[in-house]
Amino acid sequence: MSSDVGAPWTPPTSAELFASGTVVVKREFLVEPRPPPPLDAATHADAGDAAPISGGGTFGAFNKRAKFAEKSRADKPRERGLCNQLTREGKCAFGDACKYSHDVDAFLKTKPPDLPGTCTFVNKEGGCPYGVRCRYYGTHATGEGRDGATVAESTTTLEPPKTVEKEMNFVDKDVMVRLRKKKYDFSRADTIVKEVLRAMETKKDEQTKAGEESAAKRAKVDEENRTDTGAFTKARVEEKRTIDFKDKLYLAPLTTVGNLPFRRVCKTLGADITCGEMALCTSLLQGLPSEWALLRRHKSEDIFGVQICGGYPDSVTRCCQLLEDTIDVDFIDINMGCPIDSVCQKGYGSMMLEKPKKMETVIRAASAALGKCSLTFKTRMAYTDKSRVAHTFAPKVAEWGAAAMTLHGRTRAQRYRSVADWEYTKLTKESSSVPLIGNGDVYMQKDYYTHLEEHSVDTCMLARGALIKPWLFTEIKERRDWDISSRERFDILKSFASFGLEHWGSDTRGVESTRKYLLEWMSFTYRYTPIGLLDHSYGAAAMTQRPPAFVGRDDLETLMASEASSDWVKISTMLLGPPPEGFAFQPKHKSNAYASESGAALGDMDQG
């Protein structure tokens, strides 16, 4: 595939592309690759530990970053010094004593130009909550447009939604205050943990002393330990909501990119089950607002869960009690598969595979703390490559109290350095006492049905496949490969932008937050190779194949395939107007998890 320096570039043959682990694109669409863009050392130093899938964010860095963000927001003065209460409510309770400006005219003189289109909150009862801050202020019923307020004419106009539905899972301020002051009542969770630990210790002692005690004495011990918790746990298990995972399309919890607007996009394309981004138990228990924001739910998410990460029975059980007390979810998923070093060093994530008794204790106690809400967990085949262990505890998890189990067909050591082992997933399913959800490398609709029919899983969790091509949900439901056009793909991005403004806000901060998360998502979408460009004699594209440099069937398709982040910014400009002066973007996550010819990944994408 290479040529001598200075010699004319020659397109590689299909055979050469296939042999090198590259998507086989027809030669007429191939172009000479551009030099790779320079990486920012600070941004990418830990790229392998900043992967987005299933709670793959770093623990230490994640926690510190979240706390720093909270402090930064607290220290940062409000936009242009304008009173927030005045803009939202039309008046300020503090009047002249308010420390923020009430000079709306001065604010309007320095405010950036309005964006084209109509405010996303135009149909919201009570009007736009951002008032004059809104970047579409000129379209407000009571607002007055300004001359020259609209930016570039080439920018796409975003249509406002017919209705704006309020998001769910906002927590009362009183709860947050009690959490920060450590005054929340966790007595129920603490009692459950103590009784579960005592019951497990008794069971261990009985096994050790087997044959030494009389049957009557053992029965007496059993009766003594069948306390209120035993009856309580049984009653609560019977009360739990039953979630039918069978054949349901499940969008994985995705760190950073699995935000609420993205989940809404996936729901419109056919996703059945959605799950929020991974949240740390310790941060939730501390009342960190940025962590609680990860638990928001949209009305369209009819089967919705949240994923938490923790490794100790007390904190996980307290967190489960807290979540059921305060928010509306159908299930809580515990991440016991995250391979990140900083997570495993804390005893969380994949490290639980090395401590099966602790895994059992956490699941038993957490399940007992939940009433109507179901408990699930996600894990991997094993911690190391030496031996696989998931099949050894799969028969027991129903007794522990889990409603379902998700298995990622790789070990913690493998991360993404091999193809997911679906034969082992099948072996585990044969011994599983609960519904088993398979995870790993589902990229085409035929992959999904192969795993259901040949590997016997109840359903599949879609992660990277859904990030790269969210219409995968549609392909699966319609059992067809969709040669989607660039305009149809752009409409999906357009939906995300509209949902983003509704979620993060239509003021400057909201617009730029929407841009940021759109760009993070596009660091995955550029990897898609249109079906119509493929040399089908070599089969369909695979998750582990690297896309070559190519031109699309139109300029927009070519732009969408660019790996240059500057081109992603161009697309964001088409949707959200020009970014602030001096804006530059570096993706948070490393998405190049391709298999090399030797089977090793060319990049890491860590996930649970």
TrEMBL record:
<dbReference type="GO" id="GO:0102265">
    <property type="term" value="F:tRNA-dihydrouridine47 synthase activity"/>
</dbReference>
<dbReference type="Pfam" id="PF01207">
    <property type="entry name" value="Dus"/>
</dbReference>
<dbReference type="InterPro" id="IPR018517">
    <property type="entry name" value="tRNA_hU_synthase_CS"/>
</dbReference>
<keyword id="KW-0863">Zinc-finger</keyword>
<keyword id="KW-0507">mRNA processing</keyword>
<feature type="domain" description="C3H1-type">
    <location>
        <begin position="77"/>
        <end position="105"/>
    </location>
</feature>
<dbReference type="InterPro" id="IPR036855">
    <property type="entry name" value="Znf_CCCH_sf"/>
</dbReference>
<keyword id="KW-0479">Metal-binding</keyword>
<dbReference type="InterPro" id="IPR000571">
    <property type="entry name" value="Znf_CCCH"/>
</dbReference>
<dbReference type="GO" id="GO:0006397">
    <property type="term" value="P:mRNA processing"/>
</dbReference>
<dbReference type="GO" id="GO:0008270">
    <property type="term" value="F:zinc ion binding"/>
</dbReference>
<keyword id="KW-0560">Oxidoreductase</keyword>
<comment type="function">
    <text>Catalyzes the synthesis of dihydrouridine, a modified base found in the D-loop of most tRNAs. Specifically modifies U47 in cytoplasmic tRNAs. Catalyzes the synthesis of dihydrouridine in some mRNAs, thereby affecting their translation.</text>
</comment>
<dbReference type="InterPro" id="IPR013785">
    <property type="entry name" value="Aldolase_TIM"/>
</dbReference>
<keyword id="KW-0819">tRNA processing</keyword>
<keyword id="KW-0862">Zinc</keyword>
<feature type="region of interest" description="Disordered">
    <location>
        <begin position="203"/>
        <end position="224"/>
    </location>
</feature>
<keyword id="KW-0288">FMN</keyword>
<dbReference type="GO" id="GO:0106414">
    <property type="term" value="F:mRNA dihydrouridine synthase activity"/>
</dbReference>
<keyword id="KW-0285">Flavoprotein</keyword>
<keyword id="KW-0677">Repeat</keyword>
<feature type="zinc finger region" description="C3H1-type">
    <location>
        <begin position="77"/>
        <end position="105"/>
    </location>
</feature>
<keyword id="KW-0521">NADP</keyword>
<dbReference type="GO" id="GO:0003723">
    <property type="term" value="F:RNA binding"/>
</dbReference>
<dbReference type="GO" id="GO:0050660">
    <property type="term" value="F:flavin adenine dinucleotide binding"/>
</dbReference>
<dbReference type="Pfam" id="PF25585">
    <property type="entry name" value="zf-CCCH_DUS3L"/>
</dbReference>
<keyword id="KW-0520">NAD</keyword>
<comment type="similarity">
    <text>Belongs to the dus family. Dus3 subfamily.</text>
</comment>
<protein>
    <recommendedName>
        <fullName>tRNA-dihydrouridine(47) synthase [NAD(P)(+)]</fullName>
        <ecNumber>1.3.1.-</ecNumber>
    </recommendedName>
</protein>
<dbReference type="InterPro" id="IPR035587">
    <property type="entry name" value="DUS-like_FMN-bd"/>
</dbReference>
